[in-house]
Amino acid sequence: MGDPGSGGGATAHGDSPLAAAPLAGAAAVAAIGVLVLAGWTFGIEPLKSVLPGIITMKPNTALGLLASGLALGLGSLPGGSPRRRLAWRALALLPFLLGVATLVEYLAEVDLGIDEILFRDDPGAVRTPFPGRMATVTALSFVLSSAALLGLETGNRPVRLLTDALALIIVLLALLGLLGYLYEVEYLSGVLGYSGFALHTAVALSILGLSILVTRPGEGLLAPFASPTPAGAWGRRLLAAVAVVPVALGWLRLEGQRAGLYGTDFGTSLYAATMVLLLAGVVYAGTASLVREEAIRRGVQEDLRRAKEAAEAAGRELESFSYSVSHDLRAPLRGIDGFSQALLEDHADRLDDRGRDHLQRVRAAAQRMGQLIDDLLDLSRVGRAELARERVDITALARAVAADLARGAPGRSIEWIIEDGLEAEGDPRLLRLVLENLLGNAVKYSGLKPSARIGFGAEGAGPGRVFTVRDEGAGFDMAHAGRLFEPFQRLHHGREFPGTGVGLATVRRVVTRHGGRVWAEGRPGEGAAFHFTLGGGERGAGPREGGRNVKEEA
Amino acid sequence: MNPRGGLLLVEDNPDDEELTIRAFRKAGVVNGIDVARDGQEALDRLLGGGPLPSVVLLDLKLPKVDGLEVLRRIRADPRTRLLPVVILTSSREDQDLLRGYSLGCNSYVRKPVDFVTFAESARQLGMYWLLVNETPPEGR
Description:
The complex is a heterodimer.
Chain A: H1 21-42, H2 45-49, H3 59-76, H4 82-108, H5 136-151, H6 157-183, H7 187-192, H8 199-213, H9 223-226, H10 230-258, H11 264-346, H12 353-384, E1 390-393, H13 394-408, E2 413-418, E3 423-426, H14 428-445, E4 451-459, E5 466-471, H15 503-513, E6 518-523, E7 527-532, E8 551-553
Parallel strand pairs in A: 2-4
Antiparallel strand pairs in A: 1-3, 4-5, 5-7, 6-7, 6-8
Chain B: E1 7-10, H1 14-26, E2 33-36, H2 39-47, E3 55-58, H3 67-76, E4 85-89, H4 94-102, E5 107-110, H5 115-132
Parallel strand pairs in B: 1-2, 1-3, 3-4, 4-5
Helix pairs in contact in B: 1-5, 2-3
């Protein structure tokens, strides 16, 4: 079917290689209709029949094609206002009415006076028992194509499959018409009665049918052929071969028979044998390609398996590393701290203030190192732990964490503003870690003010819900915000605000493992706000508060 | 019926041993601290038929026989299967906690780096396991 409308070359637009085909097909169909109407208007014979001495396309057929082409074009344009849909339906309905009326004329043997309503037919027109009347097969095709065009509107799959089946019937009818011209036989008049397709009617209807098939092909029968994958491309090539070669073979066979080289029996045998070879070739190509794909797939699976094994081995190594860190790295620190304390307790009288201060510093350093190891282990645990997903009462969790923090900071005046009724899907242990770090930071960085106000609340709903911890503490300079969530990166001096710089890295890891995001905003001396989500959700639920700078972290 | 034994500390690190004993001494536990320096020694001491301590303080990372294996064998022996065992270790890895409790430890205490905190833990441990807690009747 080497039709211009089959759209083999239309690969430039959209993600589907057939995306531009329906519009091109619609334009071709409408153009044929316009040209033939022009032919009737100005009496240009080649436009009416293409070749001299064969059947002409009737004016009503040309009108029906024009309407069908326009309807198809409107239907394949993206978007669509109610007005355009109305126009589309009206245009799709016109060929239907023409087709039905003509069929009524044939079946009821009446003249409704529509055949020559536009133009008077030529006296003695070829194979035209009723002047100006389109062929039965054309009328039938219009009924089918209108139904198919109207069916395109729905996104309903069964309706779409029916639409495509109608389009296939149109293509089949039109192809028979085309082959009639190619093989120079007039069987259609015998089979379907009275008259056959004009040559360009057959061309236009096959384009129309194919264009319907390739409109949003992902939804219909042609979905596999519309696939942008190599398999789809391969299928399209094969389809083209299957469409062209039998037609050519049939022609050769007929020509040979007509030239007297062989009779019908041998011709049929020859055709059958050649078709067997052709189909065997197609099956061979298909099988070879499948076998090749299978081999590649196996290779990929093998690679995947090895990569998984390597990752698991690395995971196990990390596990034993953390285990060893947890056990072995802390023991010497305990010795350093413990014996320093023993010195302070047992031999304080033999040390001066400087000596005692030095020992206190030794102890402080050992304890900081111990804290660092604990934080590192927390961070590593967050990455390793199996993620539990359950409903978590975030409000209760935040209140519990706040109570712990308040106990840990006696003498501080902290006003907690924690929103009621917050819930989330997640791992309760890990979420506790997030709140401990964020609320703990809020407490810590509010420490320079006589009284602190710390808020925790949420906006939005569902997985994209944004939770926010807000304080009025030391804040930070947005210029350095990029380092905020990196491990061991700190924006403040340890002297001012002690810490290991692992907390926010831990927060980010937990949030990321939940499929969410965390980001922060702040100003030096005015406080900070940390926002996080706990799941994909809508992308729009991101940084808000237009006026302020916002630093985003994945 | 139920003579109070002392405390068996199973600890291979001499620094930890000394600090632990120091912590208990500060807490007023002066007598009856016995030390086993590896898992095998602990098992010999406990399963050998001699008098049992009131509580075993068990480190996990031990030479020869590790702490969890020591615990398993203590629980497997009818004479010691109810003996109070407190795991006293550096780690708070989930797997250690889970295995420790699955094998039937009575308590799991993490040794902190900060000695002052550790001394307080030791004081509470000694107070609880040696004074407050009733040990199971001998034999059953």
